[in-house]
Amino acid sequence: MHPLPGTAASPILTSAHKIGIVGLGLIGGSLARRLVGRGRFVVGWNHTTAPYAAAQRAGIHTVDSLEELAQGKPDVLVLATPLKAMPEMLERLAPVLPKASTLTDVGSVKGPVREQVAAVGLSDRYVGGHPMTGNEHSGFAASDPNLFDSALWALCVDESTDYGRFLTVADMVIQGLGDQLICLDDGTHDRSAALISHMPHVVSTALAALLAGHPDRQVAAALAAGSWRDMTRVALTDPERTRAMVEEDRPNVAALLRELASRLDGVAAEMESGADLGPFFDSAQPFRDYRACQMEAKRTPDHELEEELILDGHGWREQLLDSARRGRRIVRFDSVHRAIEVSGPNW
Amino acid sequence: MHPLPGTAASPILTSAHKIGIVGLGLIGGSLARRLVGRGRFVVGWNHTTAPYAAAQRAGIHTVDSLEELAQGKPDVLVLATPLKAMPEMLERLAPVLPKASTLTDVGSVKGPVREQVAAVGLSDRYVGGHPMTGNEHSGFAASDPNLFDSALWALCVDESTDYGRFLTVADMVIQGLGDQLICLDDGTHDRSAALISHMPHVVSTALAALLAGHPDRQVAAALAAGSWRDMTRVALTDPERTRAMVEEDRPNVAALLRELASRLDGVAAEMESGADLGPFFDSAQPFRDYRACQMEAKRTPDHELEEELILDGHGWREQLLDSARRGRRIVRFDSVHRAIEVSGPNW
């Protein structure tokens, strides 16, 4: 086995002692509160001081400027601002972020953020991050450490990612937050996130708009129950936030919307011609089976079989990417070389 | 004011003493348990006796045949079978259902059920019913009286509907279940239900199928969080049940799917051309405002202003239909002539 580059000998599991958070909104605030609750030292900066009093009561240290945050030498600096604010934040960070600090973010698209990071020359310090959690609310007042209960993080890497920095962010995720992670390349992340989040946000919004413009809206809205409420919940998200997320992932989202529209037109045609709808309903069966496995696994979490993945100094990136492709999640690192993974349901 | 036809003098609020339920599945079972819990006498029949022991433990009387159920002279007989079983049930009920029994159902489409009722000559005894509740599970084992907490019922009438029978079913809904109701014609119901339930079930299924067939499904499914879970929950419903519901409302559902597909293609085109997505996200704003009003009203239910609606012997149908069109719900009848209604949010 080759020695792993860029890593301290051991232990690697407490490398993210001090965490700086840029933006104390729903996600940044929840992240900060969770980390504080689990014993990490957290310093936050927000573009207005409005949440500072509440943040300080929650044990979060605050500073007056982004520059001060960076100069305080956090082990990890997390960008938790809206996507559209990131380029400005990165430009201000580039001249002041210490070499030893690792930069990550919680943005819902990863390719565009990496480009912005590269544009200001911070690629060597960057590991992309995306916690799969959130809700339709926003602001520190809506923050909740439990938002990170059993959340899965996608950590995104490319050929320039430093393994030691990857482990430092992994420490924040696993030990700092009690979460799990998978390792992805930006392209796979952005296509997958488009499929299970960005495109559905657009569909939800289109459903809400369809009702809003419908002559029967008054009666229909009165009749709306669980199915409608669930399908339109994310349409209640701040539209500027959703729009930014969708705009940064345009090509993937547009292609999926075309594909879904074509499927809906297809079912409509089958209905109009009186064709058998059986094949359409059958086509979702693998998903029903997948979810049934997943719910069964949740009922019996103790039966999750842990397996070890011995990581190689040169091959760690490909090994971890392959682990994710096979539906596995990293639950911890027992050492620099030894990741412990569990399987999800397969299909 | 004209005297109201077909009604006892008073009180009208306890006219549904004995309730017969055909089909003890998720909805029939939950309905029966809720009615028993609130003091009504409930007799059930199911096509297999599998749920009988559990039903009896829940205080539900059971009989060996549909005919016996009818001959027991229930004040209200509720058809709670799958839609596809209704024609056979109705054929068997027609020769044995006593004149004094009022027939209703819980089917998710109302026009086709009324046609089936007419085909067996039971129109004079029928009031259509659809409780806006349910979930993705099925069977008596999944039944839960709380499924009817704050449920809204659509009671569907036409020019032949007897007012006394309408009040009897209203008694079951309001006093028997603690629920509220609105009065609709079948066409408005079926269009509205297509909009907020039947079409969204198809969209949810199409989303699930899109994921199931996608090359990135393993990673995407691992990343799936709240937004995806909510949008695909109803795709987990027994596909035969969803299919029957959708098939009975084909023209409405197909037209809405075409409309949604066209909107999704439109947004995709805007994304591809780099157009401003602002107007698309703005188009859902009336729905966000409506839901904000609705949630505010839920936080302060005591502030709901009750208004009385004095019903006229000849005009009751049009008066109640108009009440629903204005977004109002009937919370009780203080007498045969006096309905008490509350407003929902307007848009």
Brief summary of the model shown:
The structure is a homodimer of 347-residue chains. Chain A is of the alpha/beta class and 347 residues long. Chain A has helices spanning 26-37, 52-57, 66-71, 86-93, 111-119, 163-176, 186-212, 217-223, 226-232, 239-247, 250-273, 278-282, 285-299, 316-325; strands at 18-22, 41-45, 61-62, 76-79, 102-105, 128-131, 152-156, 180-184, 307-310, 328-335, 338-343.
Please summarize the sheet with the most strands of chain A: 5 strands, parallel
Number of helices of chain A: 14
Cα separation of the termini of chain A: 32 Å
Question: What spatial form of chain A do the alpha-carbon principal axes imply?
Answer: globular
Give helix and strand order of chain A, one letter per element, not per position.
EHEHEHEHEHEEHEHHHHHHHEHEE
Describe the structure using short key phrases.
homodimer, 347 residues, alpha/beta, Rossmann fold, 6-phosphogluconate dehydrogenase C-terminal fold, 5-stranded parallel sheet, 3-stranded mixed sheet, 14 helices, 46% helix, globular, disordered N terminus
